[in-house]
Write a structure and sequence with these properties.
3 helices, two-stranded antiparallel sheet, elongated, 55% helix
Length: 99
């Protein structure tokens, strides 16, 4: 916490972990309303923590799904273009490059 004369301090607080401030914009207020219906009786700080945790899990899951989809496409198309270029194509191409 910040005190005008004493400066920043954390004694007497339930944690010494870093804290953040969140402005209650309309989307944040809406998310809190949803969270309050899901977890009634919890403090708003706990609701914010749960929303952040679930949001991070959702982002991680979506990222893993995208990665798996890309790998699947790569596996399906691997070798599909093996006949697209004749044998020795790269050697011929490289021979045209200046040293």
């Amino acid at each position: 916490m910040y005190h005008p004369r004493l400066g920043w301090y954390s004694h007497g607080l339930p944690t010494t972990l870093a804290r953040i401030q969140v402005t209650q914009t309309p989307p944040v207020a809406h998310a809190l309303e949803i969270a309050e219906r899901e977890w009634p009786g919890l403090a708003r700080s706990e609701l914010i923590g749960r929303l952040l945790t679930l949001g991070a899990q959702s982002v991680e899951s979506a990222r893993a799904e995208r990665r798996a989809a890309r790998r699947s496409v790569l596996n399906e198309t691997s070798g599909s273009f093996a006949d697209a270029y004749p044998s020795g194509y790269l050697d011929d191409l490289r021979s045209d490059w200046p040293q």
